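Researcher: Structure prediction, please.
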Amino acid sequence: VVIATIYYFSVWSNKTNNDTQKQVTPKNEFADNLQAKINERIDWGVKYAKAGSTARKERFVEVKLNFKYGGVSNIVVGAIGFRKDKENDEIEFGITLYREEWKEQDHVKLKRRAKVWDEDTVAKFAFYELSHGNVEKIDHDSGKSIDNELAEVMIKPSEINKYKKAHEMVKKAIYSIDPASRLVSRSHVVNSFPLDKIDQNISLMKQEVAEKLCAQTPVKLNKSQASKPTPSNRS
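Model: Predicted structure follows.
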């Protein structure tokens, strides 16, 4: 009886500890869904490469704004593409992504009708930040052809002023958030490998992209860049 009692208590204690751990570590659905969508686009590129395409590229946009008090918002933009080098029987695959996440104060929420929180405006801000901002930007002179391809698909030269205007608008609004509540991560991965080893190398690229996107760091701003929330974009 004593042994049975001790066993039952041990099982109950472990179950309680596991349940408690599950409660204090909530599942990050956005991050999981994000990685799944990125993997889909990577697989999309592999499919076309195997089918005989010599080059493809596309933009990636995922915006999830939270309009509740104390809400957590996420922005992710980037580009994914590949180029084949038939002479060397190789493929060059490139992925560049920018992610920003922030949490509003408990008594503050975003205004739905504010122009600054329009999804297209927010996406333009992030694309400009990725290409021209203070984060580690793409090296356009790196000699890697896919880098230039990705840069071109993100922002067309004829539309640069529109992106710059959107960037200034959103930047002012986001700078009013406590920097400690803003997290930024960037993933820029470019690899070349033999066509007959594409599956093995793509799996490694997926893992590297996932690790970089999860490695979020707080944004550091100067005191002059921080301001109080304004009624025009929050309430």
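Model: The mean pLDDT is 77.
Researcher: Thanks, that helps.
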